[in-house]
Amino acid sequence: KLFFTDYGNAAKVERCDMDGMNRTWIVDSKIEQPTALALDLVNKYVYWVDIYLDSVEVVDYQGRKRHMIIKGRQVRHLCGLAVFENYLYTVNSDNLSILRVNRYNSTDAQSLARLANAKEIRVYQKRTQTAVRSHACEVDPYGMPGGCSHICLLSSNYKARTCRCRTGFILGSDGRSCK
């Protein structure tokens, strides 16, 4: 799945398949300017920062179990969000500090360090990487991902795929080759 935010006419957090199909709103109320997103891949939760409401919230992949993690002055001007173990990590763009917030106990929040010009944060650790099983976009014997001549996008599950073409090309009637 692909998760993303939109705060145009109607602010929301959404998800869709990697090929853009099955677009679903998972949060569309009591939300103003959702920006940074982070996923808990194990428990299937989506965390987001709302820079207008000065808050960090969480919801499950289906839009249920929504609750506030932390709200107020302490989380103003946040950009970037990452989740690792019991903590959320974010960057305060006002004072350029890295903030760590316990996602189960919001009173446990602390500034860890200051950086010169940070706008994003990521956690790279082996335990945050999911195991990859065989999938529909694996390279075939001819070197083409999923049998697609240009771009292969996973669809509704890891066994389904959709072929797409680069700009200036159109997909052939076989659904795989680009012309």
Automatic annotation (TrEMBL):
GO biological process assignments: canonical Wnt signaling pathway
InterPro entries, A to Z: 6-blade_b-propeller_TolB-like (IPR011042), Cueball_EGF_LRP_Nidogen (IPR050778), LDLR_classB_rpt (IPR000033)
Gene Ontology CC: plasma membrane
LDL-receptor class B repeats: 1-43, 44-87
GO terms of molecular function: Wnt receptor activity; Wnt-protein binding
Pfam family, one: FXa_inhibition
SUPFAM superfamilies on file: YWTD domain (SSF63825)
Protein name as it appears in the record: LRP1B protein
Protein source organism: Aramus guarauna
